[in-house]
Specification:
This protein is of the alpha+beta class. The protein contains 23 helices and 23 strands.
C-alpha cells in the first residue's frame, strides 16, 4: 500500500517522464527520417513526375555524353545532353509504358545497324567517313574474347561501355519517336483542306510592291509609354512563363593571362627541348626528352594515323605549309586556339593496313622456358597444317577471328614490347603467322587472315606545353582583387568603384538554375557553378560573394553580387518591358505609316509616300512567305492571293515595314491535284507545327525541376 501511495503521489511526475520518453522515441525516428531525407536531397539532381533523379543516374549518362562531346570536337554540351536524356526517359518513357508501347529487339537491331540516332558516328565505329556496323560487332567480339582470356584493356572496356550506353539510348529515343508518331496519327487532314492547300501552292501572283520601311520613321517621332508595353505584355504573356526562380546580379570576371616573364620562361624551356629532341639519337632518347619536359602529349611508341594526332602536331609534320622529313625536328611554335607551345620530331613513317583480321592463341607457362617450349611446339604443329581453331581448343580457347583496327591502340601511350607487338601486327601480311612475347611473360601466336585500307602512319616525339601563368602572376592578381573586395563588400559599392580599380562589372540578367554556370558576354564561364549555387542557395539581395576561382584552367577570378530575385510564374512586367520595347516601337511606327497611307489608292500614289521603295515580285503564292530583301513577309503573300488581277491593295503591316501592292498577273502551275498525297503532306505540316509544343506540354505536366547547378 505504501508503494501504491508513493506512485499516486508521484503520478504526475511519472506520467511526465513516460511522456518525455515517448516523445524522445518518436523524435528519434523523426530525426532519423529527416537525416534520410536530407541525405536523399543531397543526392538529388532534379525531379521529374514527382520522382527524384539521383546524381549517380545523371553521372552515368554524363560520363558517356562527355566521350561523345570530346570525340566530336565539343559540338555538344554533355551536361545538357545527359539531362535531356533523363527527361526523355522519365517523361516519354512513362507515357509510352502507360500506352503499352515498346521497342522490339528487331527494331533496335535495325536502328543500330545504321546508327540511326548518330551516337556512334565517330572513332572506332567509322570506316573512313562512313559508319560501319561491322566495327560495332567487332567491338563485341573483342570484348568477349578479352573476358574469356582474362586480358586487361582499359581502352576496350571504355569503348564497350560506351557502345552499351549508345544501345540503351537508341532504344529510349526510338520509344520517344514511337510515342510522337502515335500522336501524329491524331493530326489529320481532310479533302477540303487538301484542296485549299493545293490552291495555296499552285496559284501564283506577279505584283508591284511598295514598301515603306520602319526605318523611314525616326524613333523619336513615336512615343512608347508603359501602357503600350503593358498591353503588349498581356498579349504575349505566355511567352514569359518561367520554369523556376530567376536571379539578377553583377559579376566581375577577371581573366588571368601569362605575364611577359611567364612567356619568356616557357620560350626558353621550349628552345632547350627543341635542341634535345634534335640531338636524340634513338627513339628512347626522344621519349626521355618528352618525359623530362613534362609534355602534355605523352610519348607513344607505335605508328599512328595522322588523324589520331592532335591537330597542331598533324599540321606540323604534314601541313599545307610545313612538312617534316623522317629525323627532322620542327621549330617551337605557338597555337593561339589551344594556348599551347609545341615542338615535334618525326621519328618514322610507314604505310600499313588500318584494319587487320586476326586470330590469336595465348601461350602461358610457369616460367619462360615452359612458355618457349609450348610456343615452339604450337608453331610447329600449325606449320604442319593443323587447324588453328582445333589447336586453340586444346588450350581452352576459341581461336575466333576479330578485326584489330588502328583506333584501338592509338588512344593510349604504349612503349616497349607491347608497342613493338602492335607495330609488328600491322606490318604482317595476309596468311602470315608470328609468335610475339608479351610484357607479362606470355606468348601470343597471331595469325593474320585479311588486311584492309592501307594508310600512312607516323611515329612522333613531341613536347607540348601550355602557356600558363605563374603562381606569382596568380597570387598578385588574387591579392589585388581580394583587397578591392575588402573595401567594396556590397553590390552598390562593387558596381560604383570597380572601374576605378581596373575591373569591369557586367550584369547578370534572368539567371535560372538550368544555366550551366555564370554567363559573361553571352557565354557561360566554365567551372562557375559554385558562384551560381551561392546566388541561389545563400545570397541575400545586395550581398557580395567570396572570390571564386573558375575556368577550365582555373584562369578566371570571379566575384558575383545578388541584386534581385524573381520567383513568379511569369517574368514580371518590369523585367519584360525592355524586351518588348522594339516590338511596340515597330507597332507604333506601323500605325504612323498606315496613317500616311490611309488615302492611297494606287501604286503611283504609294510611290510618293516618304521613304517608299518599289519592287517587282514574281510567282508569289499563299503557301510561301514572300521574300522582300532580308525579310520574310507572309502578309504580303496573303494580301496578294486575295487581291484581284489589276487591283490595288494595302496598306498591310509586315515584318520589315508597311506594304501596298498591285497584282499584275495571276497564273497556275501545271500540277494536278492528288488529293491523297496532298492530305498526307498537310498532315505532316500540321504535325511539324505541333511537335515543338509536345515537349513543352509533356515537361510541364511532369513538373520537371532542374537542380543540376547544385552538383554539376
Amino acid at each position: 500500500m505504501a508503494v501504491l501511495q508513493k506512485i499516486r503521489n508521484k503520478g504526475i511526475l511519472l506520467v511526465s517522464i513516460i511522456a518525455l520518453a515517448l516523445l524522445l522515441f518518436v523524435m528519434g525516428d523523426l530525426l532519423r527520417g529527416c537525416e534520410s531525407f536530407a541525405h536523399a536531397s543531397k543526392d538529388t539532381v532534379g525531379e521529374i513526375n514527382g520522382e527524384n533523379v539521383t546524381t549517380g543516374e545523371f553521372q552515368d549518362l554524363l560520363t558517356n555524353y562527355q566521350l561523345l562531346a570530346e570525340a566530336t570536337g565539343g559540338r555538344y554540351d554533355a551536361k545538357d545532353l545527359a539531362w535531356q536524356s533523363l527527361v526523355r526517359k522519365h517523361t516519354y518513357g512513362k507515357e509510352a509504358e502507360e500506352l503499352g508501347l515498346r521497342v522490339s529487339d528487331d527494331e533496335l537491331r535495325q536502328a543500330l545497324s545504321t546508327d540511326a540516332v548518330g551516337l556512334m558516328h565517330w572513332g572506332v565505329w567509322m570506316n573512313g567517313n562512313a559508319y560501319d556496323d561491322s566495327q560495332r560487332e567487332a567491338v563485341i567480339r573483342a570484348y568477349n574474347e578479352m573476358k574469356k582470356t582474362g586480358a586487361d584493356n582499359s581502352d576496350l572496356e571504355k569503348i564497350y561501355a560506351y557502345q552499351m550506353f549508345a544501345q540503351e539510348e537508341t532504344r529510349n529515343i526510338l520509344l520517344e519517336q514511337k510515342y510522337k508518331m502515335l500522336l501524329a496519327g491524331l493530326v489529320l487532314s481532310n479533302p477540303t483542306e487538301a484542296k485549299q492547300s493545293f490552291a495555296a501552292r499552285t496559284e501564283l501572283n506577279d505584283l508591284l510592291l511598295v514598301k515603306v520601311p520602319y526605318t523611314s520613321v525616326k524613333d523619336e517621332e513615336v512615343k512608347v509609354e508603359d501602357a503600350d508595353l503593358q498591353k503588349k505584355y498581356e498579349e504575349v504573356k505566355e511567352s514569359f512563363a518561367l520554369p523556376g526562380e530567376l536571379r539578377d546580379g553583377k559579376v566581375i570576371d577577371y581573366v588571368l593571362v601569362a605575364s611577359p616573364e611567364d612567356v619568356a620562361e616557357l620560350d626558353s624551356a621550349m628552345a632547350k627541348a627543341r635542341t634535345a629532341l634534335a640531338a636524340a639519337a634513338t627513339d628512347q632518347d626522344a621519349a626521355d626528352v618528352v618525359r623530362n619536359n613534362n609534355s602534355s602529349y605523352a610519348y607513344n611508341d607505335i605508328y599512328v594515323r595522322a588523324t589520331a594526332l592532335p591537330t597542331i602536331l598533324k599540321d606540323a609534320i604534314d601541313g599545307d605549309s610545313t612538312k617534316l622529313g623522317v629525323g627532322q625536328t620542327s621549330q617551337p611554335s605557338y597555337d593561339m586556339r589551344s594556348n599551347m607551345k609545341y615542338v615535334v620530331k618525326l621519328l618514322g613513317k610507314e604505310t600499313t593496313p588500318d584494319s587487320v583480321l586476326m586470330r590469336q592463341l595465348i601461350i602461358t607457362g610457369k616460367d619462360e622456358a615452359e612458355v618457349t617450349k609450348r610456343r615452339d611446339s604450337v608453331m610447329q604443329v600449325l606449320a604442319g597444317g593443323a587447324s588453328f581453331r582445333e589447336v586453340a581448343k586444346k588450350y581452352a580457347q576459341q581461336g575466333d577471328s576479330s578485326w584489330m583496327i588502328s583506333a584501338y591502340a592509338e588512344g593510349g601511350s604504349l612503349t616497349g614490347t607491347d608497342a613493338e607487338n602492335i607495330n609488328n601486327l600491322f606490318r604482317m601480311g595476309r596468311g602470315e603467322r608470328k609468335a610475339m612475347m608479351a610484357s607479362n611473360g606470355n606468348c601470343l601466336i597471331v595469325e593474320v587472315l585479311d588486311t584492309r585500307h592501307p594508310v600512312e602512319k607516323y611515329k612522333v616525339a613531341a613536347v607540348v606545353r601550355e602557356q600558363e601563368f605563374s603562381n606569382k602572376t596568380y597570387q598578385d592578381a588574387y591579392n589585388a582583387l581580394s583587397s578591392f573586395l575588402a573595401a567594396n563588400n556590397d553590390a552598390k559599392s562593387l558596381a560604383d568603384n570597380a572601374g576605378k580599380s581596373g575591373y569591369v562589372v557586367k550584369d547578370i540578367k534572368n539567371l535560372s538554375t538550368s544555366a550551366a554556370g555564370i554567363p559573361v558576354d553571352g557565354r557561360i564561364v566554365p567551372e562557375s557553378r559554385e558562384a551560381q549555387r551561392w546566388l541561389f542557395d545563400t545570397a541575400k539581395k545586395g550581398e557580395v560573394s567570396q572570390l571564386y576561382v573558375c575556368g577550365e584552367n582555373q584562369n578566371h577570378l570571379m566575384v558575383v553580387a545578388l541584386t534581385d530575385v524573381c520567383n513568379a510564374d511569369y517574368l514580371p512586367f518590369d523585367k519584360a518591358k525592355e524586351l518588348l520595347r522594339n516590338d511596340v516601337l515597330k507597332d507604333k511606327k506601323a500605325e504612323k505609316i498606315e496613317g500616311l497611307c490611309k488615302n492611297v489608292k494606287s501604286i503611283s500614289e504609294a510611290e510618293k509616300v516618304a521613304g517608299a521603295t518599289v519592287d517587282t515580285l514574281k510567282q508569289v503564292s499563299f503557301a510561301d512567305a514572300a521574300r522582300v530583301g532580308m525579310w520574310s513577309e507572309p502578309m504580303v503573300s496573303v494580301l496578294a492571293s486575295k487581291t484581284a488581277k489589276g487591283a490595288f491593295a494595302g496598306p498591310v503591316k509586315g515584318n520589315g515595314g508597311v506594304y501596298m501592292l498591285q497584282v499584275l498577273d495571276k497564273s497556275k502551275t501545271d500540277e494536278q491535284l492528288d488529293e491523297k498525297s496532298e492530305m498526307s503532306a498537310d498532315a505532316r505540316k500540321n504535325l511539324e507545327m505541333v511537335l515543338p509544343y509536345i515537349d513543352q506540354v509533356i515537361q510541364k505536366g511532369a513538373k520537371v525541376k532542374d537542380l543540376r547547378y547544385k552538383y554539376f
